[in-house]
Automatic annotation (TrEMBL):
Taxon lineage: Eukaryota, Fungi, Dikarya, Ascomycota, Pezizomycotina
Cellular component terms (Gene Ontology): cytoplasm
Span of domain Alcohol dehydrogenase-like C-terminal: 191-335
Pfam families tied to this protein: ADH_N, ADH_zinc_N
An annotated Gene Ontology molecular function: metal ion binding
Listed name of the protein: Enoyl reductase (ER) domain-containing protein
Occurrences of domain Alcohol dehydrogenase-like N-terminal (ranges): 27-145
Amino acid sequence: MRAQVLEAFNEPYRLRNIPPPASPAGQDLLIRVLAASYCHTDAVLATGSRWPELPRVGSHELAGEIVEMGPEVSSSLKLKIGTKIGVPARAYRPCGHCYECQNTDGDIQGFSVYCPKAKHVGLSINGGFADYCLVDSRQVVVVPEGLMAVEVAPLMCAGFTIWCALERAGIALEENEGVGKSVAIMGAGGGLGHLGVQFAAKLGCHVAAVEAADKPLALLRNIVGRLDSPTQDRVTVVDARTQSAEEVRNQVCGEPKEGFEGESGIDAVLILSDSQSAFDFGMKLLKNHSTCVVISFPKAGFCINAQDLIFRDIKIIGSLVGRIRQLQEMMSFVVRHDIRAQIRVHPLEKVNELVKDYHSGTGGKLVVDLSLSEG
Ligand SMILES: [Zn+2]
Ligand SMILES: [Zn+2]
C-alpha cells in the first residue's frame, strides 16, 4: 500500500510502498483510509522531541471505512464491514488493568485515553497517511449521515480537543448552556481555534476570538461572516497587535463598575498558541476566580505569574481529548449546527506541500483526501 513515512526527524515524508497492516486481532479494526488531516502534534512528532521511534506513518485524525474486524470487537459498538468511522487520537490498545483503565469516567470499561501503556495511532504506531490503517474499535465514532470524510478527519483531533476543552472550561456542551458565559480563544484562527469559535458561539457564549497575524485573522473573519446573525453577534474578533487586553475585556464584558474591577472579565480562556505573549494576554482577559485551559505545549513551557493564582484565584488546567460520550455529542452537535472546518485538501502524494502550507500559517485544516490520489 502507499504510505507517507517519516523516516528521519526534521526531514520530509517519503512516499513508500509498504506492506498493509496484518488482519486485525482482538478488538482492532482494519480500515481503508478515506481522509487524514495534519495536526500541530504531527509537526511536534517530526521534530523528534516527544516520540523517539521511527519510521512512522503520520496523521492521528482520520476517517475511513471498515474493511475487516477483529474477532473480539464488541457488538454493542454497532460496527460492521463498510461502516464509515472517524478515528480520533484516543488510545489504541490501553492495558485494561491500570488505575486509568479501571476508572473510565463513562468510557467503555477497560479503556482510558490516559492509560500510560496505550499506543496512539499516527504517533507511537502508524497512522492515516496511508491506504490502510489499524485502529482500536473502542476509540472510534460512527460518522453520521451527511458528513464527508474530509470534513470528519479535522474534527477528530482539532475539533474534539477544543470541544472537550470547552467542557473543561466550565461550559456545558448543550444548546444555550453557554448563554451568559464568555470565553476567549487565544490562537482562534488556527485548526482548533476556528472550530472552537463556532462551537462556543453556537453554544450561546460570548467569544473573544484572538489572533495576532494577518492570515489567521482573515480566516477568522471569513468563518464569523458565515455564521447566522445572532451567533455572529456573539463573536468579537481581536487583533492582539493593536488592541490591549483591557480594551478587549471592556468590549466583551462592559466597563467595570468602580470597586468591581476583579469581577469584570472573561469566564474562561483557552490557550491554543505556543507564545508566552498570547498566554499573558489571555490571563489578563480573565476575571477573578476563573479558569485558564492550556491546550498548547511549547517545549520551554509557559511562565506563570503566581500572583494571578493567589490574589486573583485563577485556575490553570489542561485538556486532552475526551470520552466516547463527548465524541458522540460533538458529532451530533456538528450536524445540528452545520459546523465545518475550513479545509484545504491535498492528494497523498503531496503531503510535503501540505506541510509547507502548514508552516506558512495558511490557517484552518490541511487534509489529505485519499480519493484524490487514486487516479
Ligand atoms: Zn491502562
Ligand atoms: Zn492532534
